[in-house]
Design brief:
This protein is mostly helical. Strands 3-2-1-4 form a four-stranded antiparallel beta sheet, covered by helices on one side. A three-stranded antiparallel beta sheet has the order 5-6-7, with no helix packed on it. Helix 13 packs parallel to helix 16.
C-alpha cells in the first residue's frame, strides 16, 4: 500500500536546463494517482512551449545528456494519457519536434534518425489529386501518429495509452473519408482512372491499394454513412473493378480485391447479390465478365498466398441464408429463390471438377468444407444438387486418397449428411454404399489412436445413439463380418444389439397391427350381424332362383320342421335332408315365435329353456336374434314384434300339443 506521502500534490519545478534532470525524474517516477493533477499543472502553464525551445537549444549545443533527459520527459508526457496534452504534442506545428525528442532514447546505443526517415524514405503517393489542404495536413498528421505508435513507442506504451493513440488515428481517418466523400468529383475521377489504367503498370497497383484502404476505413463509419458510401461506390463501378482485380495475375492484387469484397459483404451481402443478379439479367455479356464466375474460378485456382481461403470465406458470407432473411421487401423470398437457382444451376457445378483422385489436396479440402457448409444451411437446392450429380458417391471415393487431410474432409461431409437425420441423405449413403470406403479406411488405420479413428467411432456412435434405423441396418448387414473383430471398443457390438432390438420391435409392431386389423374385422362382422344385415353368401342365396320352382320362399318355409327331443334338435329341410341343431327343445314349424323346453331323459334341468324368434322366411332359419332365458323358469314370454311374420298352421299346433306345452302365440 502507498504511504500517505504518495498522495500529496506533486509540484513540478520551473523547466530550465538546470532542472531538466529533476523534472525528468519526477515525471518518470510519478504515481498513477498523481497523473491527473500533474497533467492539470502542465496544461495551466507554458510547460510544453518551454520544452520545445529547450530541445532546440540543447540540439544546437549537441548536449547529448540533456537530450536524453528531454527524451525521458517526452515519454512521460505521452504516458500521462491526457487528450489535451496529446493534441498539443501531435499538432502539425509540434509533431515533428515530438518525434525529434523521441530520437534520443538512452536504451539505444545510437541516435534514431526518425525525422530523416520520414523526410527521405517515406513518400506520400497521391493517386488522385486532393485539392483541400486541410485534408492533406490531416493525412500527414495521422501517418506520423501511426509511426510513433507502431515504430517508436511500441514497447513503452501501456494499454490505455495505446488505445488512446488508436482512437486518435481512427477519428482522423473518419474525418479524411468524410472529406473525400463530400467532394463530388473525387470518386468519379478515381474509377475513370482505374478503367483507363494499364493493368501491367504501377499506377494500377497504386489505385487498387487506394480502393482497398478506402473500403477498409469505412468500417469505422456509422451504419447509415457506410451504407451511403458503398451505394455511391457501387454505382460508380466498384464491383466491376473488383472483378478486374480478381482476374489479375498477381496474388497480391487479388488479395486486395478480396479485401474489398469482404468489406462490402461485412456491411451488407445483399448489395453484392443484387449486383450478381443484375449481371445475370444482362444479355450479350461474356462469361469472363461475370463476377460470380470469377469468384468460383478463383476458388479452384491453386495458390499458396491464402487467396483460396479468403474466397471460401467470401462464398460462405454470400451464401449464408441468415443474411438473405434480413433482406426486406415483399419480393425478398422470390429474390432468394432466384439467387439459389442461378448459383446452383450455373456456377456451383464447377466444384465437381476437382472431386477427382488427382486434384490438389488444399483445393479439395476447401471445396469439401464449402459443400459441408451448404449441406448444413441449405435444404432443397443442395439436395437436388446432390441427387443430380451423385455427390455422395464422388465424396466417398475420396476416402481412398493418401492425404489424411482429404480423407478427414470427406468424412466430415459424410458426417454432416448423417447428422441431419434426413432420410434423403441416408438413402443416398446406402444406395451408393458410401460407408464402405469409411470402414475400409478405419480398418486400414488399425488401432492407431488418431483423428481418423476418433471420427469414425464418433460416426457410428452417433448412429447408435440416435437410432438411425436405415443406417444401422445397412451397417450391420454389410460390415458386421469385419466390425465384429473390433474388441478395443464396444461401439460396434452395441450397434449390432441395437439392430436386433429394432428387428424385434418391428416384428412385434407388425404382429400387433395384424391383430388390430383382425379384431377390427371381427368387430365389423359382429356389428353387421347385430343390425340384421347379411353376409354375401346369404345375399346370394336369396337372390338365387328356386330350384323346385316353388311359388315363394314363405311356402317353402312352411314345410320345414324343427324336431326337438331328448337326443337334440334337427332342422328338416325335406327330401331326407336334416341339419342337426342344438340344444334340445320342442318341434316347431318354420317361421314364428317358438318356445322350446328340454324333454325326455335329463329334462329336470331348466338350463335349455328359451325362446326363438323366427323372422326370416328362409329354409335355413339362422337369424341371430336369439334370446335364451337360462336362469329364470318363470320369465314371461316375449311378445312378437310388429314386423315379425307369424305362422300358425295345423302342423305347428299338433307339434306343440305333442310336446306337452301348447301355447298358441
Amino acid at each position: 500500500l502507498a504511504t500517505s506521502s504518495s498522495f500529496q500534490r506533486v509540484e513540478l519545478p520551473e523547466l530550465e536546463a538546470g532542472t531538466l534532470e529533476e523534472v525528468a525524474r519526477i515525471l518518470s517516477d510519478l504515481h498513477p494517482c498523481h497523473r491527473e493533477g500533474c497533467a492539470a499543472q502542465i496544461r495551466s502553464t507554458d510547460f510544453l512551449k518551454k520544452l520545445g525551445e529547450l530541445f532546440h537549444m540543447l540540439e544546437d549545443l549537441e548536449d547529448e545528456e540533456g537530450l536524453r533527459h528531454v527524451n525521458a520527459v517526452m515519454k512521460a508526457l505521452v504516458m500521462l494519457n491526457d487528450m489535451q496534452i496529446l493534441e498539443v504534442l501531435f499538432d502539425d506545428s509540434a509533431i515533428t519536434d515530438t518525434i525529434g525528442m523521441l530520437e534520443y532514447d538512452p536504451s539505444f546505443p545510437e541516435k534514431q534518425n526518425h525525422r530523416e526517415t520520414l523526410r527521405t524514405k517515406m513518400k506520400f503517393k497521391e493517386v488522385i489529386p486532393i485539392r483541400r489542404e486541410d485534408v492533406l495536413s490531416k493525412i500527414h498528421q495521422t501517418f506520423k501518429i501511426s509511426y510513433i505508435k507502431d515504430m517508436i513507442l511500441p514497447i513503452v506504451l501501456d494499454d490505455a495509452t495505446f488505445g488512446t493513440l488508436s482512437s486518435i488515428i481512427l477519428y482522423n481517418n473518419v474525418e479524411i473519408l468524410q472529406a473525400l466523400a463530400s467532394d463530388p468529383g473525387f470518386f468519379q475521377n478515381l474509377f475513370s482512372k482505374m478503367r483507363a489504367a494499364d493493368r501491367e503498370g504501377q499506377d494500377w497497383a497504386n489505385l487498387v491499394e487506394f480502393v482497398r484502404e478506402l473500403c477498409d476505413h469505412t468500417k469505422h463509419l456509422q451504419v447509415h454513412q457506410r451504407h451511403q458510401f458503398f451505394v455511391h461506390l457501387v454505382k460508380l463501378g466498384l464491383f466491376d473493378m473488383t472483378c478486374a482485380i480478381l482476374q489479375d495475375e498477381s496474388d497480391t492484387l487479388r488479395l486486395k480485391g478480396m479485401d474489398v469484397l469482404m468489406s462490402t459483404l461485412q456491411h451488407d451481402p445483399a448489395m453484392l447479390r443484387e449486383f450478381l443478379m443484375h449481371q445475370e439479367n444482362k444479355e450479350q455479356r461474356k462469361q469472363g465478365e461475370y463476377l460470380m464466375s470469377t469468384i468460383m474460378d478463383t476458388l479452384l485456382l491453386e495458390s499458396h498466398s491464402g487467396l483460396q481461403e479468403q474466397i471460401s470465406d467470401v462464398l460462405r458470407m454470400l451464401l449464408d441464408p441468415e443474411s438473405l432473411q434480413q433482406t426486406g421487401g415483399a419480393g425478398g423470398k422470390d429474390n432468394k429463390n432466384e439467387f439459389w437457382d442461378v448459383f446452383y444451376q450455373n456456377y456451383f457445378g464447377k466444384v465437381l471438377a476437382v472431386l477427382t483422385p488427382d486434384s490438389n489436396p488444399c483445393t479439395l479440402v476447401l471445396v469439401l468444407d464449402l459443400l459441408c457448409f451448404c449441406v448444413h444451411v441449405h435444404s432443397m437446392w443442395i439436395k437436388y444438387f446432390v441427387l443430380r450429380n451423385k455427390l455422395v458417391d464422388k465424396v466417398a471415393r475420396l476416402m481412398q486418397r493418401a492425404e489424411k487431410v482429404v480423407v478427414l474432409a470427406a468424412l466430415r461431409l459424410i458426417r454432416a449428411c448423417v447428422g441431419l437425420k434426413d432420410e434423403f441423405y441416408h438413402n443416398q449413403i446406402t444406395s451408393c454404399n458410401a460407408l464402405a470406403p469409411v470402414v475400409e479406411a478405419f480398418l486400414a488405420n488399425g488401432e492407431r489412436y488418431n483423428m481418423l479413428n476418433s471420427a469414425v467411432l464418433e460416426l457410428f456412435e452417433f448412429m447408435k445413439k440416435e437410432n438411425l434405423k436405415v443406417l444401422i441396418k445397412y451397417s450391420v448387414e454389410r460390415f458386421w463380418g469385419d466390425l465384429c473383430k473390433i474388441e478395443y471398443v464396444q461401439c460396434f457390438k452395441q450397434l449390432k444389439l441395437k439392430h436386433e432390438q429394432n428387428v424385434n420391435n418391428e416384428s412385434m409392431r407388425v404382429e400387433g397391427e395384424e391383430r388390430t386389423v383382425m379384431a377390427e374385422l371381427r368387430l365389423t362382422r359382429l356389428r353387421k350381424r347385430r343390425d340384421g344385415s347379411m353376409d354375401k353368401e346369404e345375399e346370394d342365396y336369396f337372390e338365387s332362383e328356386d330350384d323346385d320352382g316353388g311359388d315363394s320362399s314363405v311356402a317353402n318355409a312352411r314345410g320345414v320342421l324343427m324336431t326337438v327331443g331328448g337326443g337334440g334338435m334337427d332342422l328338416d329341410l325335406g327330401h331326407g335332408q336334416k341339419i342337426p341343431l342344438s340344444p334340445p327343445g320342442e318341434a316347431v314349424g318354420a317361421g314364428g315365435l317358438v318356445r322350446f323346453q328340454e324333454v325326455g331323459p335329463g329334462a329336470s334341468s331348466p338350463r335349455m329353456q328359451g325362446t326363438v324368434l323366427l323372422t326370416s322366411p328362409s329354409p335355413l332359419v339362422l337369424n341371430p336374434l336369439v334370446d335364451y332365458d337360462l336362469n329364470d323358469d318363470d320369465s314371461p314370454e316375449q311378445a312378437p314384434r310388429a314386423n315379425d311374420v307369424m305362422y300358425t298352421n295345423a302342423e305347428n299346433k299338433a307339434a306343440n300339443r305333442a310336446g306337452g306345452e301348447s301355447k298358441d302365440p
